[in-house]
Amino acid sequence: MHVHNESLTVSTAVLTVSDTRSVDDDRSGQQIQTLLKESNHNVVDYTIIQDDISAITSTIESWRKDPSIQAIIITGGTGFTPRDVTHEAVSSLLEKEMQGFGELFRSLSFAEIGPKSMFSRAVAGSMGRKAVYALPGSTNAVKLAMTTLILPTFQHFVEELNRQ
Asked: How far is Cα 55 from Cα 17, in angstroms, rounded to an integer?
C-alpha cells in the first residue's frame, strides 16, 4: 500500500465560474475554501469570472505558471446550458484526465439526485505537476465532491504529480 504524507499542506487556487455570483453570494466557492482551510490546506488565490471559455482558460493558464499553486479547484459551468463551457476549457488544458473522478462523482450524485446526475460534466486531471478539478456550481455537489473524493485523496494526488 502506498502511504502519503497526511501532513502535506496543498496550496490551492479556487475559481468560481458564474455570470451571476459575486464574492458576497458565492456559496460554492466559499464552501470550497472553508473545507480546504478546515483540512489545513492553503487558499493562495480565489476569483470569480464569467462563463467565457477564454477567460476560464487564461485564468487557469496564469495559475499553471504560478509555482506557489499546487492545485486548482473550479466550481460552476459544468452543465449543458449554452453558457456552460468550463468542461471544454478545462479538458483542453488537461495533460492527463482522471477518468474515475467524473464517473465516481456522477455515481455518488445519483444516490442523492437520481438520473439528473448524468447532466454533470465534472472532470479532473493534471496539468504538469498541478491537480485540477472542475465541479458543478451547486453547494451540495461541491460538498459531495470535496468531502468524498477530493480531500481524502488530495495529498496523495499532489505527491504523485511531484514525484521524481
From this structure: 9
Per DSSP, the three-state class of 150 is: helix
Residues 6+ apart with CB under 8 A from 91: 97, 123
Listed in sequence order, the residues at least 6 apart from 23 whose beta carbon sits closer than 8 Å to its beta carbon are 48
Q: Please give the tally of structural domains in the chain.
A: 1
Q: What is the pLDDT of residues 124-142, one digit of tens each?
A: 999 999 999 999 999 999 9
Measured between alpha carbons, how far is 37 from 104 in angstroms, rounded to an integer? Answer: 24
What is the Cβ-side half-sphere exposure of residue 29, based on CA atoms within 13 angstroms? 22
pTM: 0.96
Residue type (1 letter), 28: S
Residue 107: inside a domain = yes
Q: What is the CATH number of the domain that holds 66?
A: 3.40.980.10
